Amino acid sequence: MGFYLAQYKYCYASKIIMKKCLIIVIVFVFCGLFAVSFIFSWRLALSIGLIILGSLGFLEKIFKIKWGMSLTILFLVLFVALSVVQAIYSHYKERQASDLSLQVEKERFARIQLERQLAPRHLTKVDRWSIINAMSRFRGMTINIHRRGELEPYNFANEIAEALKASGLRVEVDGEIGMVTGVEYGVIWWARPDSPDIGATLSKLLTGLQIPNRGYYVQDLGSDAALRVGLKIPNLNSPD
């Protein structure tokens, strides 16, 4: 009798130990699956978990453990919670990536706008032909072009001078046109009151080419007309 009682106690103790060991294993397995779900995918973790769950069911039959249903419910609850956490985390990462992409796009657009605003002015072929066609009726008249020392307005003034020469005007570069004070932007033109047509044509032409300009009529101007090419107008807020 004592032998059977000892054997019963031994089997009961073995089951208790097995149960505790399985609980510890389950805790470690769940932690591992949780880590796998973040490193790889919750679907992979779910697949591994189901395999382990099936193995536990097999062990249940071998060792006749009666709490397999509780394990099943526990795993299902844990995997549902795991799936929700992973979905929230994935949404957060996608939102973070979307915000980062949007920020990069905004910075790229701002850089393009800044580069466009700081780009030097140039006459296109269409601009050049517009100048030639508009100014050719003043062929033989003299126009004085004054260039600033800065590279951008200096080169732009040269392009305008070449187009005016091609229209038949006599172009004098860097002649005296009087004292102009302050920082100059755009193009300033001068014409004599007795030659109003050339001044009006210059104003209309420059405006049509979207070149900011202003003009004056000067009685004692040494030439029929004059141009002074100033700095490019800074307009960093322009959508264009």
The structural class is alpha/beta
Biggest pleated-sheet summary: 5 strands, mixed
Q: What is the count of distinct domains?
A: 2
Q: Level of helix content?
A: 55-70%
Q: How many angstroms does the end-to-end distance come to?
A: 101 Å
Summarize this structure briefly.
The protein has 240 residues and is of the alpha/beta class.
Task: Tell me about this structure.
- The chain is of the alpha/beta class.
- The chain folds into two domains: 2-117, no CATH class; 125-229, Alpha-Beta Plaits (2-Layer Sandwich).
- The chain contains six helices and five strands, in the order ααααβαββαββ.
- The protein has helices at residues 2-39, 42-63, 68-118, 125-135, 151-166, 196-208; strands at 142-147, 170-173, 187-191, 213-217, 225-229.
- Strands 2-1-5-3-4 form a five-stranded mixed sheet, with helices on one face.
- The radius of gyration is 43 Å and the shape is rod-shaped.
- The termini are far apart.
Keywords for this structure?
240 residues; alpha/beta; Alpha-Beta Plaits; 2 domains
SSE layout:
Elements: H1 2-39, H2 42-63, H3 68-118, H4 125-135, E1 142-147, H5 151-166, E2 170-173, E3 187-191, H6 196-208, E4 213-217, E5 225-229
Parallel strand pairs: 1-2, 1-5, 3-4
Antiparallel strand pairs: 3-5
Helix pairs in contact: 1-2, 2-3, 4-5, 4-6
